[in-house]
Amino acid sequence: MSKAKEYSWMTKDKLMLYTFAALAVLAAITAAVWWPISCKDWSLGLTLLVNCIIAVAVAVILDYILALVMKERGPVNTMSAAVFGMIVALSYSLGIPAMAMVEVLPLAAPEAFMHVAIISAVGLIVFKKLQGLFGRKYVNPAAAAKLLVLLPLLYQVLIPSDHVSYIPTMAAALDYKTPLSYGTPFASHIMYCFGNPSEIAAEATPSKIFEIMFLTKYHGWPGGASSLAVIIVGIALFIIARRYIKWRITLCYLLTTAVMSLVMTGVYGGDALLRLMFHLFVGSSIFLAFFMATDPATTPLTHRGQGIFGVGLGVLTVLIQTYMNFLGGSILALIIMNLTSPILDKVGLQKPSEEKIEKKLPKSQSFEKVKTYQCMRCGACMVICVQNLSPILIKEAFDKGRTEDLKKLRADLCSGCGNCTFVCPARIDLRNFTLRAKAALRSEKS
User: Fold this and answer.
1) Which of 73, 141, 199, 360 could form a Cys-Cys staple with 123, CB 3.0–4.6 A?
2) What topology does CATH give the domain 7-344?
3) Both ends of the chain: CA-CA distance in Å?
4) What percent of the chain has pLDDT over 70?
């Protein structure tokens, strides 16, 4: 029997399991609230549950098959595929807006089932597996797959002509009284689009709009149907896995979005709170903030890089929603910012220190058997290093034989404390890689 080793209690499997549980809670809450609402003779809540089952099943089955075909080293990370499937289902818009006069096919069952299955398959194969062959993931798989699959259908199927004509321009004064281009105030548009179809009030009021945007929306991303639920569940997950989830992105994104919405109110006038509520609490924005923008594989490693990422995401989201009339603009903004992550990885790296800096380690646990997965780029190893080194970047440079990068990253300062290996949820032996890089630098000098 192998001797048990001490590691941080958090593993990649556990992190994915907790994330899946959080997403399942959101799905259950939305399904329960939407259950009485019928859409094309299907319960909206039932449609969501079937979508979740289909998306998760497609992702998990394909992940297992591809792992066998590609003969991947290490265990199959089923929970990661399951989390991906849940995000696909919860970011797929459901429910026909009250102002739509004709059928909006992909937004209701049974057509929605086919689209969700395709998005899950494309995302898993193209953006999760094949993208990983390049050494890292460059764009969020769920976001990229959704745009790739649905963009060609956008005007032909997803948004019929009558629906397009009712999309309001955000580059105007948004309030409760001023009619927009189609003769309806923006507040009324929110009520007709996101309110309960069976309870559409004659007049939109601030309290009614707050109830819709913050508590329950009946159209759009199911994951963001209740902003309150997303915030509570998201914060709970952040507390449990605070060392491994990039919460700084969420915080900077929400703060920047709020500031940008106030700036737009200053430019165009109108009700500041109304615009603020829309930009912050529209389903795509709030769900993305907690469960997609924090994807460790496609976001920066450093704290400063994460802050810049969140600010850029907030700025782009508001600009896209305001000037492109793409009211779910956060998903496009996310893909754009994902592409900046390789650059932002190098922003704000800690200055390596020759003296040891004591770091507080997380709770430990004994493991007799250890599963090693691919790096999830959480950055925990960089935070815990007593020499302020960047172990994961050193490993990547060592794997590629980049001696100059190893010198810049000061791999020669590694003391071999093993904190990086201890905290790594993927159980990569970062200590060994860093010490090998150190030895390589010494041999080159000699």
Assistant:
1) 141
2) Ammonium transporter fold (1.10.3430)
3) 41
4) 91
